[in-house]
Amino acid sequence: MTRYICSECGFSTVTKTGKCPSCGAWGTLGPHAEASHAPKSRVEVVSAVSVTPPARISSGIKELDRVTGGGLVPGGVVLLGGQPGIGKSTLLLQACGFMAEAGVSVLYISGEESSAQVALRASRLGIKSENLLLFCGSDIEDALSRVAGDIGFFVIDSVQAMRVQNPDTPSEGWPGTPAQVRTVAQLVIDKARAMSVPAVLVGHITKDGKIAGPMLLEHMVDVVLSFSGEGYSSYRMLRSAKNRYGGTDELGVFEMKEDGLQAVEDKSGLYWNRSDSVVSGVAMTIALEGSTPLVAEVQTLAAPTPFPYPKRTSRGIELNRFQLLAAVLEKRAGVVCGAYDLYLNIAGGLFIQDPSADLAACVSLASALLDRPALANSCWLGEVGLAGEVRPVTRVSSRLREAERLGITRAIISAREKNDSSWPKNMEIKKVNSLSEALKASGIC
Ligand code: TYD
Ligand code: MG
């Protein structure tokens, strides 16, 4: 029976129709021939202990190595996704430059830019090594045929810009269609495995933040990294969403400068201005970004309003969460919010998803409403329940250690946290059961 495949979305059907029932594109259904690029089945039966794990190869960028779990793995393929202009090509070209300087022959395959454009960027980044080779073109088979000899690392920029030119293959169509993306990725994976060299694929992302192309793409590769940042800020975050060779909770932070990306060592410093003045409405917390603790300054402003529906605005914590915390504060701790417009902001543009910032948000809110500054040099760590109880947070000891490193001398945490020998010795730790106890301990009520 002939199957028909949509060249836009990869939908497969046995009836040929003019319009694809899945994506609605017209004239895209074509007969599916057996793929000449279908992966050959690999047969390997060995004892696990007899196999020595391959040594990692450093990309020359410490943050990138950390996020990948200790460096690139020979034969492993990394997919790097991110919005246009975020710096994917810059990051990879810098890595290629470092590796080339360390003596690895590197091939940078660009399907999007001309060799002049890539060379211009390379000179801007100060890359001079002869070991960095460029291939500019969109034919993936031609490009991969150059991955030979002593090439020790290659980059494909991007998976959506490359295509298989052979008209006999089922993956005809524009570059970037799911069938093309799948075939290109499979060819790259096969090449990396066969040559036992690491490779990085760049992937574009769609408006809703997913990597464009088939979902399958993320299953095919070994590591999925996302590179992100806010439009107004020069900081870029590198996170791992999947890692067959390590954890996924590391965070790499870079700053985009005139001469490329530079690693940011003191990540907490990003969101904290270390001001000494004591004002009402400010409380510090230590949020976790993966396993990286980041200090966050929760600021609240309460302004009296004559209107019957006061305004609630929140940036950095979900608005619904903020409204819920305001209601808990009023009902369980007796701090009346009714006649005030409330504005909450986490300084520096950090968005905190875990509930550990609840206590700091409540303290900052109460401090703003009562116009009394909370204790200086302190941090608040706790989730606040609807009954006004203060609950423990995850990895409290690593948060406390980060607070100590930054010179914070006091922490207000849940009474249900179990003492641990790894907690900082010189920090004053106040344990509280409820929100009202926390407000008393913070010098507000
Ligand atoms: P780029 O790496 O081309 O992004 P992507 O590949 O993710 O689309 O980065 C482009 C942006 O980075 C561009 O707006 C200019 C800026 N940039 C710098 O600020 N400094 C630099 O040294 C380089 C190379 C780029
Ligand atoms: Mg690019």
Overview of the molecule:
With 445 residues, this protein is of the alpha/beta class. The protein folds into three domains: 1-35; 55-265, P-loop containing nucleotide triphosphate hydrolases (Rossmann fold, 3-Layer(aba) Sandwich); 270-441, Ribosomal Protein S5, domain 2. Helix content is 23%, strand content 26%. It is built from ten helices and 21 strands. It has helices spanning 62-67, 88-101, 115-124, 140-145, 178-195, 216-220, 319-333, 358-370, 396-405, 435-441, and strands at 4-6, 12-13, 29-31, 77-82, 105-110, 132-136, 151-157, 199-204, 223-228, 235-243, 251-257, 260-263, 282-289, 292-304, 312-315, 340-346, 378-381, 383-384, 390-391, 410-414, 428-432. A nine-stranded mixed β-sheet has the order 6-5-7-8-4-9-10-11-12. Helix 3 (115-124) links the parallel strand 5 (105-110) and strand 6. Helix 7 packs across helix 8 (358-370). The structure holds thymidine-5'-diphosphate and magnesium ion.
| Widest sheet: strand ordering | 6-5-7-8-4-9-10-11-12
CATH homologous superfamily name of the largest domain? Answer: P-loop containing nucleotide triphosphate hydrolases
- The portion of residues assigned to helices is 10-25%
Quick one: how many beta strands?
Answer: 21
Q: List the total number of helices.
A: 10
Indicate the low-confidence ranges by residue numbers.
Answer: none
Q: Structurally, how many domains make up the residues?
A: 3
Which kinds of small molecule does this entry bind, naming each only once? thymidine-5'-diphosphate, magnesium ion
Distance between the termini: 77 Å
Q: Specify the structural class.
A: alpha/beta
Shape descriptor reads elongated
Radius of gyration: 27 Å
